[in-house]
Design goal:
This protein is α/β, with parallel strands linked by helices. It has helices at about 45-65, 85-100, 110-115, 165-175, 185-190, 215-230, 235-265, 280-295, 310-320; strands at about 5-10, 15-20, 25-30, 75-80, 105-110, 120-125, 135-140, 145-150, 155-160, 270-275, 295-300. The protein binds 5'-O-[(R)-(carboxyoxy)(hydroxy)phosphoryl]adenosine (KG4).
């Protein structure tokens, strides 16, 4: 009999449900929440309310696209954290109620582990290309910037992480301050395509070890633009493409400097990326070219699996399921990684 896992993701502003059968994806449905656009960032209370509205239709759509009924499910995997508490509560409570009603196990998943394992989502008709263990994952999203050593699907170790803002936050905050739109990453990525990445230079941090810092470079861009605007009120309008390209290049340089160091220190040349920022064109291109130059094997998730999605939660849950892990019904969601 096959193992059919329903995955549920509700950690931030996307409500998602996915079904996998023996590790192969049958469906992945994502309802993004447009309500936050007007505020230039995610409003937690609005996010939880939207999850409440979305969760039932999203789960039933995922089941129907997969061609399975609730009775076919072997287990339900859900994101327990880290993330927004109110949002996580919706997915967690839903998973518990459904698990209880169907009398099947529930399995809690760390959201970050989902991103780390996104490479292992198998799809029908797509030749799998998966890293071998151990590998390094550059995990870059709106809430995290980490270099993670992954020894097997269930064991990983954070080698370095941001000491302040996440790289996605740097994209989002700068885009917001410059009036370019939200979320900032895709906007800056698109504008940068027509810009000169070498035109402007921004301060890079000097942080020891494998940790990151992104708040200084963000401030450097904002002060620079403020000073230029005082001289020429049209500065931003005239230079936004070059500004975006130069800013994006600086962020990618910072990410790569530490990744190169991590490869050198560990001797691990299997390299993956995950999280929303791993959709960034400049970052993907640079990972490919560095990989070719340095003899790394680079694996990049398809763009649809970089941002929050339940397929990655289902695959992570599947590995926990195979290992015999089950979650008790009194498990509570956690907002911080440290509490996991
Ligand atoms: O993993 P994710 O969907 O969720 C959370 O962190 O919760 O990542 C979202 C982040 C946002 O900061 C967004 O601006 C960024 O990923 N992002 C990008 C791109 N697409 C999404 N950043 C740079 N370039 C992109 N193309």
């Amino acid at each position: 009999m096959s193992d059919i896992i329903l995955g549920i993701e509700s950690s931030c502003d996307d409500t998602s449900a996915a079904v996998i059968e023996d590790g192969v994806l049958l469906s992945n449905v994502i309802a993004s929440q447009e309500v936050h656009k007007a505020y230039g960032g995610v409003v937690p209370e609005l996010a939880s309310r939207a999850h409440e509205l979305n969760i039932v239709p999203v789960v039933s759509e995922a089941l129907s696209r997969a061609g399975v009924t609730p009775a076919d499910l072997s287990a339900i995997a859900f994101t327990r954290g880290p993330g927004l508490l109110g949002s996580l509560l919706v997915g967690t409570s839903f998973a518990k109620a459904m698990g209880l009603a169907l009398d099947i196990p529930i399995i809690d998943v760390n959201h970050l582990q989902g991103h780390i394992l996104a490479e292992f989502i198998r799809q029908k008709g797509v030749e799998p290309r998966e890293p071998s263990f151990p590998y390094l994952c550059l995990l870059v999203s709106g809430g995290n910037s980490q270099i993670v050593r992954v020894d097997n699907p269930l064991h990983y170790q954070i080698l370095g992480q941001t000491i302040d803002d996440a790289v996605g936050e740097a994209f989002d905050k700068c885009s917001k301050m410059l009036g370019l739109g939200y979320p900032g990453g895709p906007v800056i990525d698109a504008l940068a395509k027509n810009g000169d990445p070498l035109r402007f230079k921004f301060a890079k941090p000097h942080i020891p070890g494998l940790d990151y810092s992104f708040s200084g470079v963000k401030t450097s861009l904002l002060y620079f633009v403020r000073d230029e605007l005082a001289r020429d009120p049209d500065f931003l309008e005239k230079n936004k493409e070059d500004l975006c390209a130069s800013f994006q290049k600086t962020l990618v340089d910072i990410l790569l400097d530490k990744l190169v160091k991590a490869v050198r220190q560990t001797g691990i040349t299997e390299v993956t990326a995950g999280g929303g920022v791993s959709a960034n064109s400049a970052l993907r291109e640079r990972l490919e070219t560095e990989g070719r130059k340095r003899g790394w094997n680079v694996y990049l998730p398809e763009r649809k699996f970089t941002t929050d999605n339940a397929a990655m939660i289902a695959i992570a849950g599947y590995y926990h399921y195979l290992a015999g892990e089950r979650t008790s019904l009194d498990a509570a969601p956690v907002s911080r990684l440290a509490d996991f």
